[in-house]
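Lab manual, section 2.4: Encoding a predicted structure.

Procedure: take the sequence of the chain (190 residues), apply the prediction step described in section 2.3, and record the output as structure tokens. A sample record is shown.
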Amino acid sequence: MRKTFAPKRCQWAKGGDALSLSYHDREWGVPVRNDRKIFEFLVLESFQAGLSWRIVLNKRKGLRKAFENFDPEKVARFTPARMQKLMQDEDIIRNRLKIEATVNNAKRFLEVRKEFGTFSKYMWHWVGGKPIRHHIRKMSDVPISTDEALRWSLDLKKRGFKFMGPTTVYAHMQAVGMVNDHEINCFVSR
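Recorded output:
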């Protein structure tokens, strides 16, 4: 009988369900420069605040539908009535402040995009245009924030973004590959 070996993964992904493993293996830490995908991760990270990432991944499909495939132009036009209707949607995380923040952040996202040409250009300038590579040996080596995340978070706050504190911003930076925090023995580590 042939033995199969599971690839070595980051500690946080070990023992995860199929959705978490797929996210770790295919998305987390992969550099993203597409504005709509960036907006998706901003939405997901803001909804994650205070919750587990597994909950957000399980609600991702519902969030995608509720927020018009994460189209910031459409989300920016959501009315109070539309936001109230989302509070009844069992397929999403029904948190009024997070729903309102998503609509607000879509408006701010579009303002940044207008100023910089793309949100991606604005976002990537915080790390000099290329991913920061941390040499993570174990989970306890992963920071919860960095100076770059703090500075960017303060700028986002100044621009009117909500639910974008330094820890959330750092999680976003990890998700979109601005920082590579895969453990050095992880098969995804680049």
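Check your result against the sample. The two ends are 33 Å apart (CA to CA).
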